[in-house]
Amino acid sequence: MQKQAIFQSKLLPYALVAPQLAIVLIFFYWPALQAVIQSFLLQDAFGLSTTFVWFDNYVELFRDPAYFESILRTFFFSFAIAVSSLSFALLLAVMADKPLRGSTLYRTLLIWPYAVAPPVVGVLWIFMLHPSLGVISRYLRAAGIDWNPLLDGDQAAALIILAAAWKQISYNFLFFLAGLQAIPKSVLEAAAIDGARPMRRFWTVTFPLLSPTIFFLLVVNIVYAFFDTFGIIDTMTRGGPGKSTETLVYKVYSDGLLGGNLGSSAAQSVILMIMVIVLTGIQFRFVERKVTY
Amino acid sequence: MANVTLRNVRKTYPGGFEAIKGVNVDVGDGQFCVLVGPSGCGKSTLLRMVAGLETVTGGEIDIGGRIVNQIEPADRDIAMVFQNYALYPHMSVYNNMAYGLRNRGMAEAEIKTRVEEAARVLELTSMLERKPRQLSGGQRQRVAMGRAIVRQPKVFLFDEPLSNLDAKLRIAMRVEIRKLQRRLNTTSIYVTHDQLEAMTLADILVVMNGGQVEQVGNPLAIYEKPATTFVASFIGAPPMNLMATRPEEIRSQLAGSNAADAGILGIRPEDFVITDQTPAGGVALPLTVEAIERVGAETFVYGSREQEEQHVAATPGELPPGEIIVRIPGTEAPAIGAKIRVAAVRAKLHLFSADGRTRLEA
User: Fold this and answer.
1) Do B89 and A186 touch (CB under 8 A)?
2) For the domain B4-224, what is the CATH superfamily, name and number?
3) Could you give the 3-state DSSP secondary structure of residue B230?
4) What is the pTM of this model?
5) Model pLDDT for residues B153-208, shown as the tens digit of each residue
6) B78 and A197 in contact by Cβ < 8 A?
7) Which of B83, B84, B103 sits opposite A194 (nearest CB)?
8) Residue B143: its chain A contacts at CB < 8 A?
9) Architecture of the structural domain at B236-360
10) A193: nearest Cα among B144, B135, B6, B306
């Protein structure tokens, strides 16, 4: 078997990968490099002069209590989004895995939300839960709940977590369903004969056998909650009220584009880049090991 | 200890496919029952119905005097060994065996005693801490056996447990399973498609085809008096030679018996002798030798009959029409292309109705 393609011309292979390389270089590496350079610079208020300040932007950032609050908030959001989205997706996958009539339709419908873009997700949930326009808000208020995510930071946070987790359920569902279907049926049958009731069977056999999938999804969900929630936050709360929904990514945007502090914003994005690299590294190392139980 | 009785058991799938068409089998206490048949004959489905993994459409399954049709697998007091072993991949060998006992709330000390005893019997003592993926096929098979025996159930169910092993190991494990079953004296039902496994293991052999039982009985009795042409050709290797009785050559030799009603004549390869004489009441056939297979202790002679012959009722492992296998001891055989005459005595003839469904006494 021939695994390596042989090209007549030495240039052809390079020509073939060039478009993809160009896209990666122009849209990924170049802005990343710009961010790294920018993070060492300080601009005056009018953007007329730029000074090289070494690590001053970073030092200032780590002295700022607001930044630590944002880090904590991001961790909390990630944790809440990952846990709620994973557990709900797992529940749905376990139910969809049963032989049901019309399960194909059911499964397809569950996958759809993944095709919805994050800003649209934000808009959808705002329509339902906006304090004065929202459909559900009316009932919440009628039920005596003082629902106003535009003023109440905790409610705003809950709203973001809800919308972000909802969108991610589809993705998690898909992987969980595949993971469940990869578990040999006979192993579960053996457990049934061995006297394990459905709940016990799930926790002692299914769940441990799903652990590689769970770990993989945990990393993916954290990365998602860190970065892809920008669109949702921007359409729903714009980081507010106050700074109660300002995650690290949103802070990069608001400090840089809204606040005009490009140096600090760039330093923040460099830190985020390092976080992604670490998370991805963990995931790759994990995926390579494959079998974990 | 328990009897297992199947009374007119039926299984129809929602699509309308009838997998089991009314099966009656009675397995006595401590007996080893083997269900054998070609793939798709329903033998595994039947076993899974006994286990409670498939619902029963009709009839009754009785384990130890209790109708279990509506009872959960866990409460039937059975243990099953699966074809792919179905070990819990994330648990050590010890925990694999202990799992069923823990689920039943047994004390850890008692579990330890039982698992260690089973491990000793199955020579797994040094592997108790290993995970299934660190074991060879034969070792996994033994763990699956261990998981069944620690439970000390009323009935063992085996679903083609040896088919994933290589030929040598399969024979060794076959003997092990039989010894173990004799020692524990636990009623067992064993599914296989391998007729040799079936013959060697069974106290009672159930030959199945197309969701129906073709014949039930002692393996040797079935071998000696197959009830249908299906059983005749399925049990025994190489298969029984089956030929239509219509050609004058055969008809004339069978004259003067109820062979007149017979449509199909069967003769086992080992019942032929190469001879120029025709035994009284027996059958002799002239053959041209087409091929010779020498396997050491015996030799198979493949010969073709002179005249063209129409097709005999369809059966698995069937020979092409007009071809005859003769088994002779030793290695001496006629040359290829030689014209020979083979004959079988009256007592070794098997006569069947033309549709192959009924055995006629010669």
Assistant:
1) no
2) P-loop containing nucleotide triphosphate hydrolases (3.40.50.300)
3) helix
4) 0.78
5) 999 999 998 888 888 888 888 888 898 888 889 999 999 998 889 999 999 999 99
6) no
7) B103
8) none
9) Beta Barrel (2.40)
10) B144
